[in-house]
Amino acid sequence: MDRRVITVLVFTLCLCTTASAQSSRPAELSASTTPPWFPRAASLSVSLREGAVLPEARVQWQLLFFRSRKDSLGLLIEPSVAFAAARPASIPDASGALASLQLYSLLFGVGYTNRTESGLEWGFQVSTGPTWTQGRFTTSPARESAWMGLLEGRGRIGYRFGTVGSGITVGYGDPYNYKRSSRSRPFIGGLQLGLYADWR
User: What does UniProt give as the signal peptide span (predicted)?
Assistant: First the structure.
């Protein structure tokens, strides 16, 4: 098994252990008025890697399994779509240039959020899942289409105005289980910077 996947599993178990060690009857956060079938958050971000700039839009569903007065821990489901808005002049193996790139992902993870009485909130999450990539290169009219895994870690900090919170996110992503021959892989993942809003 990939070492990065093992790291995520161990980290998730640690989070669950911490949650179970809390008081059995905490003062709970107010229940969300958002229907369970409706997304709880959305974000706009950009990924930077090997000269490629990929804007990304994603929405998030959340299933809480621990909630106290200030803390919450839940399972996350995040579909997303991204495309290369800026591309490098050449690719690492010198076989032409990247003409276009699209990513379609469905990530599953665990997220933690802490909210203070002043309205400040911060949190982090780890997630992984399948990604479908479609890339086109100047050396061939055919598109390169491939499936691979994507592992992400993100932190966020923001402020809550009533029932709505917003702020900034910073993270890093890395693909795994990809074909060695994939020419799109070097441009996937990398540093992530963005804005988020949630209405949990």
Answer: 1-21
